[in-house]
UniProtKB/TrEMBL annotation:
This is Methionine aminopeptidase. GO terms for biological process: proteolysis. Binds 2 divalent metal cations per subunit. Has a high-affinity and a low affinity metal-binding site. The true nature of the physiological cofactor is under debate. The enzyme is active with cobalt, zinc, manganese or divalent iron ions. Most likely, methionine aminopeptidases function as mononuclear Fe(2+)-metalloproteases under physiological conditions, and the catalytically relevant metal-binding site has been assigned to the histidine-containing high-affinity site. It is an enzyme of class 3 (hydrolase). A divalent metal cation 2 binds at D111, H175, E208, E239. It catalyses: Release of N-terminal amino acids, preferentially methionine, from peptides and arylamides. Its cofactor is Co(2+); Zn(2+); Mn(2+); Fe(2+). The keyword ATP-binding does not apply. The gene is map_4. Monomer. The keyword Hydrolase applies. The lineage of its organism: Bacteria, Bacillati, Actinomycetota, Actinomycetes, Micrococcales. Belongs to the peptidase M24A family. Methionine aminopeptidase type 1 subfamily. It comes from Cellulomonas aerilata. Signal peptide: none annotated. Removes the N-terminal methionine from nascent proteins. The N-terminal methionine is often cleaved when the second residue in the primary sequence is small and uncharged (Met-Ala-, Cys, Gly, Pro, Ser, Thr, or Val). Requires deformylation of the N(alpha)-formylated initiator methionine before it can be hydrolyzed.
């Protein structure tokens, strides 16, 4: 099913997006060398409940995971790229951390992910990989407007990733968002322009380019959730939720700078 938000629902989507973005920004600023992933999860839970929002993850039991997720944020480190299950691990200088968060606020969901390097180190390949996913995300957003097709967005995203030299895995990608986190249409991270669903005002989409440095093959961790690169190489992931507007697209998950938690 594809949901189209009414104009009166858009303010709620903006509020959900701002909350997700401000929580991610706060967690990013707190994540330091020595920070434990379980603390990140606890901080996320406190900020979600403190804002009167609901976690989209804690009870989530999709076919691609084992049982309910049981945590409030995805924490994916280095070779982990998607659905990283928070566990007892203290971050080290130079770790590449991806935080992926989706919450529901007054019935509307927003979903966003950021990747960054922890501490003082700036490993050039990691910085380049994060940059490629951010540029791919920007290109996808720039292609989003009423009348554009999903394939136009996929093509824009995939062209940047492939142009940066990364293999592309199309098992997981972006998706429609609305009263629930994962909805149609699927937005693959590569594709042909001029194909697929035609965008219209009120559609919410989560666009989420992700890459692995030297492989397109994923393996599932023994925890039943965390998806890692098959070769152990580093990975990156960037995601925004956008709303299609009358003349383009609005990014809902930009930090406002408001204090949360
Ligand atoms: N928010 C993720 C996405 O970007 C999905 C996480 S599912 C979870 O689509 F169960 F792992 F939390
Ligand atoms: Co998503």
């Amino acid at each position: 099913m594809i949901e189209i938000l009414s104009p009166t629902e858009l303010p709620r989507a903006r509020a959900a997006g701002a909350l997700v973005a401000d929580i991610l920004q706060t967690l990013r600023s707190r994540a330091a060398v020595g920070t434990n992933l379980l603390d990140v999860d606890r901080w996320a839970r406190a900020m979600i409940t403190g804002a009167g929002a609901q976690s989209c993850y804690v009870d989530y039991e999709p076919s691609f995971g084992r049982g309910p997720f049981g945590h409030h944020i995805c924490t994916s480190v280095n070779d982990a790229v998607l659905h990283g299950l928070p566990h007892d691990y203290a971050l080290a200088d130079g770790d590449l951390l991806t935080l992926d968060l989706a919450v529901s606020l007054r019935g509307v969901v927003a979903d966003s992910a950021v990747s960054f390097v922890v501490g003082e180190a700036r490993p050039p390949e990691s910085v380049a990989m994060i940059d490629a996913t951010e540029r791919a995300l920007s290109a996808g957003i720039a292609a989003a407007r009423p009348g554009a097709r999903i394939g136009d967005l996929s093509h824009a995203i995939g062209s940047v990733l492939a142009g940066a030299g990364y293999p592309i895995n199309t098992q997981f990608g972006g998706h429609g968002v609305g009263s629930t986190m994962h909805q149609d249409p699927h937005v693959a991270n590569a594709g042909r322009p001029g194909r697929g669903f035609t965008l219209r005002p009120g559609l919410l989409l989560a666009l989420e380019p992700w890459v692995m440095a030297d492989t397109d093959e994923l393996v599932t961790d023994a925890d039943g959730w965390t998806l890692r690169s098959a070769t152990g190489c580093r990975t990156a992931h960037s995601e925004h939720t956008i709303a299609i507007t009358d003349d383009g697209a609005e990014i809902l998950t930009l930090p406002t700078g408001a204090a949360v938690g």
